[in-house]
Write a structure and sequence with these properties.
The complex is a heterodimer. Chain A is of the alpha+beta class. Among the domains of chain A are: 176 residues, Aldehyde oxidase/xanthine dehydrogenase, molybdopterin binding domain (Aldehyde Oxidoreductase, domain 4); 178 residues, 2-Layer Sandwich (Aldehyde Oxidoreductase, domain 4). In chain A, the strands form 7 sheets. A 7-stranded mixed β-sheet of chain A has the order 3-7-1-15-12-13-14, with helices on both faces. In chain A, strands 9-10-18-17-16-11 form a 6-stranded mixed β-sheet. In chain A, helix 10 packs parallel to helix 11, helix 11 runs parallel beside helix 19 and helix 12 runs antiparallel to helix 13. Chain A is globular. Chain B has 3 domains: 47 residues, Uridine Diphospho-n-acetylenolpyruvylglucosamine Reductase, domain 2 (2-Layer Sandwich), CATH 3.30.43; 116 residues, 2-Layer Sandwich (Uridine Diphospho-n-acetylenolpyruvylglucosamine Reductase, domain 3); 109 residues, CO dehydrogenase flavoprotein, C-terminal domain (Enolase-like, domain 1), CATH 3.30.390. Chain B contains 11 helices and 14 strands. By secondary structure, chain B is an alpha+beta fold. The N and C termini of chain B lie far apart (59 Å). Chain B is globular. Classes of the chains: A alpha+beta, B alpha+beta. At the A-B interface, helix 4 and helix 20 of A face helix 11 of B. Bound molecules: flavin-adenine dinucleotide (FAD). The site of flavin-adenine dinucleotide has 30 residues of chain B, from strand 2, helix 2, helix 7 and strand 10.
């Protein structure tokens, strides 16, 4: 491991001193020694333990809840149901002015009228001991009227499907489609993006391929279950310690549901054991808070793994239909997509992003994409790494692979021919800035993996392309220069992927300091301005913008301070890249020069400590592309697919800390490989989830994957001071189609439904005879 | 709150007494890798644990050429697969116990626990059955020996009566020109439960099969022996055709359910494939 040098002559080939080096992460020691504090470690005097009672049915009406016996149990301090929420205005707008349905948010936390999925929380018990709380759950009597569940997205769209939310009508976001105001439906939303004229586009095509695809529910599978501890003090002030990707978002939502001022809540985020999007939604905090208010004591809830699978997380199961037409020379002239995403219990699947990204890697003149957000009996879908993109892009990429075969054009060449370029419009019609789609496919084409020869029987190779737009959003930070020249950096972003390091590096780079001079820390919600979730691949991007602007502001303030001391005009003071502050010699010819440390040591006597706070809302983002190559072997007797070699090429803009970039890419591939091969949700006919455990929800282990090779391509993002694009999400997009193509190459069978589990592959092989 | 008592037996008789007094909800505690998990998840009611790991003979094993191998029921499996004699003479047992859980689990998991947990998918079970292993049982009415193949009565159920427990599992010395092998199929490469597992044993006289045992797991309510597969081999010359015939017999004998771990079609087919694969290796080992 290389650490950084302050040395100004150690400029890397990328033109930076620190960016592109691999320093040790600030949280490393605590994590490897087991000292890092996670939410479930929260301990305090008088702590109570809460457990949740969850629905044993997939769909039912709650007729009554009787908790009297539970309350009478020795050691039980309080029981909570939805009736304990303060009645609040149930509709309103979120922070960005979009309509937000608080009823749905609240009902997902504790069901009021109906349970909509197996594991839906209906009541909570706080007791002196977790075992007493568990015993008490068995004493709560809930009278259910069991209803027919519908777990499949296409069945939920049928006219005679059981209705989850009586009175629901489709919110149509397509100019030429009529809203049916008569019919109750599970289709919460229908959106359409369209450009050109797909009819004439398809008419001009020489080859047209149309296929249908399905993907399963996939859980993020973070190792740490959700946990939240709350203490509601007698003065009405509420403190929460939790595991969340968005402490500020949870704070604001808690304030809304509990009807208290935001300033009365302090949310203290703990180290987080993975999230991948699944720790953006709020599940536990209002329950801990209300139980604490009832009992006057701090209350902790930690979910069981079973509850994590049943009631949090997964990304939508989908049904997608794709039609693509091309000319003989490979030019894609028309594309049509029909995407139906299961939202789970409440509206809000990531179908919008699925629509935006479906044809993302390509420029296609005539295209239409219809997306449907459909409620089904299942947990409310949550964000999961490039939410919505893996499913729609899998369907498109798999169709492109078939198109390449029909046209007799190599699939990499076909992709290069149609790759989106600077100036081409995205799905919403906005022209793309400088992007690296072509560079990525060129790198795939030239990669030694791609040019190597495949060897052996029943082996196959696949290639896939992927796109994700990444996010900007609000970030805030404060930096303070200490008297010894070190800098304290306070950030609002929970650190999941090494962002304390990547943000400190960007501040150090800007200020001409060393990485070790910066001490980054994740603060509570009172100590730093609003910072949006750690998600959307945005933290190193948006937080990096903030770090850069902080650095510029601190440099300015140091110049001003020197100008005051020297009594010269500000524009006569220079701050060099090695962090020395100089001006021209004084009248007696004495040098005017401060080292950074020298000036820092004088701050107290020359006007006080120097600090800066920056808060930004970056609407820009850095679109990113990945190209993957895989070799697989298929065991024809068992249907098992083994990944022999995997290479992921990705345009990351600028790799701030290459080790963490590589780690993100490898992690994304591992999760995508699970989606392709072994992970799935099993619901039975009663809507009961049969595999809510790590044993039966089969995520790949280290023994199931080879070392994933990475190749970093750097086409700097023009919308960022260091060219960062965001890296965490793109790599989960290509694995499904890439592996699907390799399986076809190995055994000649195309599988349209993910995952391609050994059972599915074997049964297909047996059907073929 | 549920209270659980923990009692430590230091002799076989003490264990019998504690189990008899404890009644239905007294459970033997060996490695605890099944029972602690089940009690914690409230899948099984346990009032008292009777720890048998402090009975010396339960924690050791002996091998000699005349008596074969006797394994104390609570001996952690890592001690077994690290032993030279067991590696040399019982490779099929080693194949099964090296895949139970991971290193941490293998530091505790025992053959007796795997046997008495009586899961249809338990990995050592079909290996023990193929090797013709015998469970040595002690109880209020004395001792008795029951073949592992006769031990199971249903998923999680077995022939043990109140107060009885397994003291040891014995394996005969493998005859000359015999060989055995064990395999399972799992969707992942580790930390998974068998979709099907299979143990096979053959004894040869030249190229003629003189004895054979084939056992399948996870294809019925209990692990099963497949006598028809043995019949397809015994008295016949060992060829691809006879092995295929035995594999077909396994296919016919498997009566699996469909669940989230596998379909009927998949499990029946894998019964055939694993029979074939284990027989190929067993024959190779028998030939020496
Ligand atoms: C992470 C993990 C992975 C696992 N992987 C596998 C695997 O791959 N394959 C597999 O087959 N199993 C697996 N298991 C299950 C378990 O480890 C095995 O079944 C193990 O052999 C049980 O042995 P034990 O000594 O821990 O049994 P215990 O848990 O102590 O006992 C199991 C049951 O048998 C009873 N019992 C134990 N000993 C006796 C005795 N001598 N007489 C009478 N009754 C007795 C107990 O009362 C209990 O009901 C796994 C478990 C875990 C937690």
């Amino acid at each position: 491991m290389v650490t950084t040098k302050k040395n100004a002559d150690a400029i890397g080939t990328n033109g930076y001193r620190l960016i592109g080096t691999r320093p040790i992460r600030p949280d490393g020691t605590d994590k490897v020694t087991g000292r890092a504090a996670y939410a479930a470690d929260t301990q305090m005097e008088g702590l109570l333990f809460a457990r949740l009672l969850r629905s044993p049915h997939g769909h039912a009406k709650i007729k009554s809840i009787d908790a009297s016996q539970a309350l009478a149990l020795d050691g039980v301090e309080a029981v909570l149901t939805a009736a304990d929420f303060p009645g609040i205005e149930m509709s309103g707008n979120d922070r960005n002015g979009r309509p937000a349905d608080n009823q749905w948010l609240q009902d997902n936390i504790l069901a009021s009228d109906k349970v909509l999925y197996h594991g839906h929380a209906v009541a909570a018990v706080a007791a002196k001991d977790p075992h007493i709380a568990e015993d008490a759950l068995t004493l709560i009597n809930v009278d259910y009227e069991v209803l027919t569940p519908v777990t499949d997205v296409r069945e939920a769209m049928l006219d005679d499907a059981p209705i989850l939310h009586p009175g629901m009508r489709t919110n149509v976001q397509a100019s030429d489609v009529e809203t049916d105001t008569e019919r109750e439906t599970n289709i919460a939303m229908h959106m359409r993006l369209e450009r050109g004229d797909i009819k004439s586009g398809f008419d001009s095509a020489d080859v047209v391929i149309e296929r249908e695809f399905e993907t399963s529910w996939y859980h993020q599978g973070y190792i740490e279950p959700h946990s939240a501890t709350a203490f509601w003090n007698r003065d009405g002030k509420l403190t929460i310690w939790n595991s969340s990707q968005g402490p500020f978002v949870v704070r604001d939502a808690t304030a809304k549901l509990l009807d208290i001022p935001i300033a009365d809540i302090t949310l203290i985020p703990q180290e987080i054991g993975g999230g991948f999007g699944g720790k953006i939604p709020m599940y536990l905090e209002p329950i801990s808070a209300l139980l604490s208010r009832k009992t006057g004591k701090p209350v902790r809830i930690t979910m069981t793994r079973e509850a994590v699978f049943q009631a949090t997380g997964p990304t939508s199961a989908t049904y997608n239909r794709i039609k693509i037409g091309a000319m003989r020379d490979g030019t894609i002239v028309a594309a049509d997509a029909y995407l139906a995403y299961a939202a789970g219990a409440y509206p809000g699947s990531p179908v919008g992003a699925g629509v935006q990204c479906a044809f993302g890697p390509y420029y296609i003149e005539n295209q239409r994409i219809d997306g449907y957000d459909v409620v089904t009996n299942g947990p409310k879908s949550a964000a999961y790494r490039a939410p919505g993109a893996p499913a729609s892009e899998f369907a498109v990429e798999a169709t492109i692979n078939e198109l390449s075969e029909s046209l007799g054009i190599d699939s990499v060449e076909l992709r290069l021919k149609n790759a989106i370029k600077e100036g081409n419009p995205n799905a919403a019609g906005v022209p793309m800035p400088r992007i690296g789609a072509e560079e990525v496919m060129e790198a795939v084409k030239n990669h030694p993996h791609y040019t190597s020869e495949l060897q052996g029987d029943d082996v196959g190779r696949g290639v896939g392309f992927g796109f994700w737009h990444n996010a900007g959003l609000e970030s805030g930070s404060t930096a303070t220069i200490n008297s010894d020249g070190s800098v304290s950096l306070i950030v609002g972003s929970v650190d999941i992927g090494g962002t304390r390091a990547s943000l400190a590096m960007q501040l150090a780079e800007t200020m001409g300091l060393s990485y070790e001079d910066i001490k980054p820390r994740v603060a509570d919600t009172d100590s730093v301005p609003f910072t949006h979730v750690t998600g959307g691949s945005r933290t190193t991007f948006a937080g990096g913008w903030v770090a850069y602007e902080l650095g510029i502001e601190l440099r300015e303030k140091m110049r001003e301070r020197a100008a005051n001391i020297w009594e010269v005009d500000l524009d006569e003071v220079e701050y060099s890249d090695d962090a020395t502050i100089t001006s021209k010699p004084d009248n007696e010819g004495n040098e005017r020069e401060f080292t950074f440390v020298g000036l820092a040591s004088k701050m107290a006597s020359t006007g006080g400590q120097i600090s800066a706070t920056v808060s930004l809302n970056k609407t820009s983002q850095g679109a990113a592309y990945g190209g993957h190559i895989v070799d697989v072997h298929v065991d024809r007797d068992t249907g098992k697919v083994e990944i022999l070699r995997y290479t992921a090429v990705q345009d990351v803009g600028t790799a701030i800390h290459p080790s963490y970039v590589e780690g993100q890419i490898q992690g994304g591939v591992a999760q995508g490989a699970g989606m392709a091969l072994t992970e799935e949700y099993f619901y039975d006919d009663e809507g009961l989830l049969k595999n809510a455990s790590f044993l039966d929800y089969r995520m790949p282990t280290t023994l199931d994957l080879p070392m994933i090779e990475t190749e970093i391509v750097e086409v700097p993002n023009p919308g960022h001071p260091f060219g960062v694009r965001g890296v965490g999400e793109v790599p989960i997009v290509p694995p499904m189609p890439t592996i699907q193509q390799a399986v076809y190459d190995a055994i000649g069978i195309r599988l349209y439904d993910m995952p391609m589990s050994p059972r599915v592959v074997l049964e297909e092989l047996l059907n073929e005879g | 709150m549920q209270t659980v008592t923990y009692q430590r037996a230091s002799t076989v008789n003490e264990a019998i007494a504690l189990l008899s007094d404890g009644g239905e909800n007294a459970r033997v505690l060996a490695g605890g890798t099944d029972i602690i998990v089940q009690a914690r998840e409230r899948a099984r009611t346990v009032d008292s644990f009777v720890d048998i790991k402090h009975i010396p003979e339960l924690m050791t094993f002996n091998y000699n050429t005349s008596d074969g191998l006797s394994v104390g029921a609570a001996t952690p499996v890592y001690l077994l697969y690290n032993d030279n004699d067991i590696q040399t003479h019982y490779p099929a047992l080693v194949e099964a116990i090296t895949v139970i859980g991971g290193t941490a689990i293998q530091g505790r998991a025992s053959l007796g626990g795997n046997l008495c947990n009586s899961s249809p998918a338990g990995d050592s079970l079909t290996s023990m059955m193929a090797l013709g292993a015998i469970a040595n049982i002690a109880g209020p009415n004395g001792e008795r020996d029951v073949a592992v193949s006769e031990f199971f009565t249903g998923p999680g159920r077995n022939i043990l009566d109140l107060g009885e427990f397994v003291v040891a599992i014995s394996f005969a010395t493998p005859p000359a020109n015999s060989g055995a092998a064990w395999q399972r199929f799992i969707p992942r490469n580790e930390m998974d439960i068998a979709v099907v597992n299979c143990g096979s044993y053959v004894q040869l006289d030249g190229e003629i099969v003189t004895d054979a045992r084939i056992a399948l797991g996870a294809v019925a309510a209990t692990p099963i022996m497949v006598p028809a597969a043995a019949e397809a081999l015994i008295g016949r010359q060992i060829t691809d055709e006879t092995i295929s015939a035995a594999a077909e017999a396994s296919y016919e004998a498997a009566t699996p359910i469909a669940d989230m771990r596998g379909s009927v079609k998949q499990r029946k087919h894998l019964s055939k494939v694993l029979t074939q694969r284990t027989l190929d290796i067993a024959v190779e080992r028998a030939r020496g």
